[in-house]
Amino acid sequence: MEIQTHTAIDSRLCGSMEELGEGFARVRFEATEEMAADDSRLIHGGFVFGLADYAAMLAVNHPNVVLGRAESRFLKPVVVGDVLLADAEILERTDNKRLVQVAVRREDETVFDGEFLCYVLARHVLASSGPRESG
């Protein structure tokens, strides 16, 4: 199956796709020194969330998928050098909504889990529908 969404993602920041199937994705991620939040080499949670979000987007695998809401739980700390696998699976499909469950593991230990509510839009979220206000 070919990746149809988030095709410009930097795999060093969000991971790289290992497996992709109908309603399922597995993404591999290695925590690097640049992601450390402190001298203890703790990885900032935003990188782990980014991995999980990317896995959810791949599970949906539509060019116009966006994240609407997430419920997430950080269960264990992640440190520089950890290799993580994120498994994402669509639990529910209704109209333009997809509820995706994501579990992030380090070996046999779950470090993060969450549910991501994704929307499949008729067009790209940045497609112009007229003038945009700035300010």
Short description:
By secondary structure, the protein is mainly beta.
Characterise the protein shown here.
- The structure is a single chain.
- The protein is mainly β.
- It has helices at residues 11-14, 45-60, and strands at residues 16-21, 24-30, 65-74, 83-94, 97-106, 109-120.
- The chain contains two helices and six strands.
- Strands 1-2-4-5-6-3 form a six-stranded antiparallel beta sheet.
- A hairpin with a 2-residue loop joins β4 (83-94) and β5.
- The N and C termini lie far apart (41 Å).
- What is the strand content? 35-45%
Mean pLDDT: 94
CATH architecture: Roll
Class by alpha and beta content:
mainly beta
User: Superfamily at the CATH H level?
Assistant: Hotdog Thioesterase
Query: What share of the residues lie within helices?
Result: 10-25%
Shape: globular
In CATH, the topology is named: Thiol Ester Dehydrase, Chain A
Number of domains: 1
Count helical runs: 2
Order of helices and strands: HEEHEEEE
Radius of gyration, in angstroms, nearest whole number: 16 Å
Distance between the termini: 41 Å
- The CATH top-level class label: Alpha Beta
* Low-pLDDT segments, ≥5 res: none
